[in-house]
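Figure 2 data, in text form.
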Amino acid sequence: MPEHATDAAFELIKHYGVNLKIVNERVTRHGDYRRDHNGLHQITVNASLNKYRFLITLIHEIAHLAAFEKYGRNIKPHGDEWKSTFQKLMVPFIRPEIFPNQLLPLLARHFRNPKASSDTDATLAIALKQFDDRSEKNYIFELPYGSHFRIHNGKIFKKGAQRVKRFECLEISTGRVYLFNPNAEVELVP
C-alpha cells in the first residue's frame, strides 16, 4: 500500500471492524468482501497486487461493506449506492502524495462513474499495470491479428477483429468465438 495511505486505510479498517486477509492470487478477482456466519466482516485482497491496485481494491471492498450497512443488503453489489459510497471513500486517497501524477487524471476520470472492476477501464488498468512486477505476458491489443495465445486456464485462441472495444477471438479446440477486453493478459503461442 502507498505509504501515505496507510493511516487512513487502517482507520477505515478499524471503523468498519474489518478482518483483512491477504491471500494468494486469484485469477478471477483482486479481492472480495463477505460477512461470515458470526456477523464478522472479512475482506480478502490478493497479495500479488501492486500497491496502487491493492489500495483501490481494499477501498472497493470496504465500500461494499459500507454501502450494505447504510442502504441494506438488498442493493445491487455494484449499483448506484455502492458507486457513491466507493467514490466518497476513495476521493481522499486521490492525491499526489499517494498516487503518481500520471495516474491522477485517470483515477479522477474513473471515479466519476466507477465500474465493478478497475480492469474494465482499460486505460486505467494498463496504467496501473506498469507498476506490477515484470511479466512474460502480453495484452491482447498488442498482439498481431491472427496470432495465437494462451489464457490462464491453458485454452488457446486466435485473435480476430476488434469490435467497438473488445476483440473477437476464436477458441481453437471448440471453434467458439469469445470477446476479450483489450487489456486481457495472455501468453503468446509461437
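Caption note: The CA atoms of residues 24 and 46 lie 6 Å apart.
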